[in-house]
Amino acid sequence: MKRGIIFLLSIAFVLSLLSFPAFAGKGVIKIGMIGPMSGPCAFQGSSMKKAAEMAVDEINKKGGILGKKIKLIIEDDESTPVKAVNAAQKLVTKDQVLAVVGHYNSSCTLASMEVTQRNKVPHLCPISVAAAITGQGYKYIFRNCATNPMQVGQLADYVTQNMGKKGKENRVAIIYEQTDYGKGIMEVFKKKVSAVPGWKVVAIEVYKPGDTDMIAQLTKIKATKPDFMLVGGNMTEVAQIVRQAKEIGLKTQLLALGGVSTDKFVKLAGKENIEGMVNTSYFETTSKNPLAQKFVKNYRARYHSDPDMFAAAIYEAFYILDYAIKKTGVKYKSIKKWRKALRDVLANIKDLPGVQGPTTFGPNGQADKKVYIVRWENGKRVIIYPKGS
Amino acid sequence: MNTFISQLINGVVLGSIYALLSLGLTMIFGILDIVNFAQGELYMLGAYVGFFLIAVLHINFLLALVISMIVMGVFGILVERFSFRPLMGKPHTSMILGTVGLSIFLMNGAILIFGAEPRRVGTPYSDIFVNLGPFSLSMQRVLVFAVTAALIILLTLFIQKTKMGKAMRACAQDLTAARIVGIDTNRIAMLTCFIGSALAAAGGVLIAPLFLVSPVMGLKACLKAFVVVILGGLGNVPGAIVGGFIIGIAENLTAGFISSEVKDLIPFSILILILLVKPEGLFGKYIPEKV
Fold first, then answer.
1. Which of A128, B10, B112, B174 could, after both became Cys, cross-link A106 (CB 3.0–4.6 A)?
2. Residue A290 burial class via C-beta count within 10 angstroms: exposed 0-12, middle 13-18, buried 19 and up
């Protein structure tokens, strides 16, 4: 009896593997999104989910794309590359999605883009910033945000062109997180700043993620009398560093990167400690871009909170897909051909307006994006570059 | 020279916290013969109690410190009663698994209750600055050192001068003999855990306004406390105090004069060196394992 049941179950299992998945072309377009719905980055994951659901609802309310409704399938990667690969595998083979949007963590994107590339599925990467994602010549990956070197370079350009003292030596200190992310920041900033006449990097210090006491490094930096200090790391540690800098009486122009451009940062660092600090930002709710204004207004109405940069990036990615799928037309009988056609449209996108600014994909699938430069004034961020936005 | 003195001051402040954490660890080992891997979590919970009292109930910082020490002291007694006592006299592996389990339980419990994101505690002392010539340091840091010094003096007086202290020393020497002469060893074990846990809580509350409070803050701190305890000699109270300051100062001088990249390397190099050259620690006496 028992053997009979096992036999029947095995047959059922084999049949389920053989059964052909339903082709997406019957009335709905399936799009998969993968992000950290649980685990250490679940907070950011929830922003991604909210923005994706909002974008899909809006598109479907307008009648969908090419007369078909979008079906959004959300998967959880828990910020781990293994789960990311499994999720991508499920979306491309079992669900037969037309395109994948995803991941928060660069490590997850780097792992799952192997799956999307192998299966030739267009993959939009709106958040992960590691340079290697679009640096390997993969044909199916497209990123609609600035990479880490791009934002660091733009910050260095702004600072050296607008904030220096003319005719005097400008001394720069860098303190960074001892990870690939932090090291990348330090290297690009050091190279860019050192190349400008009158600018000199006088101190470079490191700390480890999770460190709480950076007084030793800051004391050393203070002795070099810097005019500027770049803090290259994540929000929690940057908050500690700016507070401890104040504590030991280290007075410099503080500089930081996109990760601190959130309201949570003010709470951790204390608004009096970050007054005048300048950092890059991927998205600001005060942006004058009409698409961004509309997005912020609708997001507030729907969720009663302000969208963050992750929500904005995901929202933009879905509208890039909306535009590109429309351009592919309906003539594709097989999902494989449709995916290929979608990739070709994406690769040729030029100056497509979006909530984060226009998107033009380069030959590697990397969009040429500009970041904002903001200054903290009384606990609020004020956009100082580009002017008038 | 100025940088040297500033780094020395930083080292003394950091060393105070290491000393507080290590004292509890070394006392619990000395009397109960248990290596408490959950010591860092007691420090973390102490910081959360302090956070609640200061940021939510707006109680004066020093009062909050005392309340937090008492609350965590009582918690220490519960830990002794329900976690350590069943482990006493059991093989070392069960003891290690028991306290590691307790550590994981407390940390994840804290994530569940307080959330994983770090919190900031503000006190008036972190905004007052003491200027000593070219050095500037916040009142909070001065307070860390002053309170630690006061607690160490009180603890030494208690251990050396009172009857209870004498009983504790007797238990540390030989638990069975102490029982024979009529000392209530269970009460001494409870007292030890009260003190050990209260000292860890004091460390947590003192450090909370300087750093951020988070459920995982105990992990790294506990690791350093182990280095300190081994350096000073397991179960040795003066050793834990001196060891704490040595590690704190060594870390800051390394970051200041060699490189911040090897800051964490030095304490652990010292650990390996001590284990190789003088495994009983700087202040410990070599005691052959009882058979």
1. A128
2. exposed
For B60-102, what is each residue's pLDDT tens digit?
A: 999 999 999 999 999 999 999 999 988 887 888 898 899 999 9
**What ipTM describes this predicted complex?**
0.75
Give, for A113, the enclosing helix (H) or strand (E): helix A106-118
pLDDT, position A26: 59
Q: Do B260 and A236 touch (CB under 8 A)?
A: no
Domains of chain A, by residue range, sit at 19-145+289-370, 149-281
| Domain extent at residue B25 | 20-216
DSSP secondary structure string for all residues of A13-37: HHHHHHSPPPPTTTTEEEEEEEE-S
Question: Which residues of A fall within a CB distance of 8 Å from B8?
Answer: none
- CB-based contact A213 B211, cutoff 8 Å: yes
What percent of chain B is helix, strand and coil (3-state, nearest 5)?
A: 75, 5, 20
| Window A:292-321, CB contacts with B under 8 Å | none
- The 10s digit of each residue's pLDDT in B29-40 is 988 888 899 999
| Residue A217 near chain B (CB below 8 Å) | yes
Q: Do A326 and A388 meet the contact criterion of CB atoms below 8 Å apart? A: no
Residue numbers in A near B122 (CB within 8 A): 270
Fold of A149-281: Rossmann fold (3.40.50)
Residue B188 resides in a domain: yes
